[in-house]
# Entry
Amino acid sequence: MQPGEVWGNRWSNAVLPMARRYMEVATQKQSLVCLAADRNTMSGLMELVNEVGPYIAALKTHVDLVDDWSPEAWEGFCEAAKQHNLLIFEDRKFADIGKITKNQMSGIYDIRSWSDIVTAHLISGPDIVDGLQSAW
# Structure
């Protein structure tokens, strides 16, 4: 099936590329599942992505909870997710002003380079959305 057949008006009215990408992935896999990948080792994350990758649409990560994180290991994880056509949803819960949030997106974890979706609190106001958008 094609996304337009499955999603109907949602597909035809979707203007955001990420919304369309999610609908494409969900249609292809026949799954709406976004699995919480709450593992604290790179080997645990790799095992999970390879075990469930073919069956789910997205993985929700917490990069800062991975005890043995390294840029090289994370790159391997992201490549495995890409091979399984998974969206990566970093549950970072950004909550600072736009400028700081933008800097956090490019910090040690370089979230902007691999995350498809991030979470944020609006406690600091709408400026946070501008900061996130400008980081990508």
Observations:
- The radius of gyration is 16 Å.
- The longest strand covers residues 87-94.
- The first helix runs from residue 3 to 7.
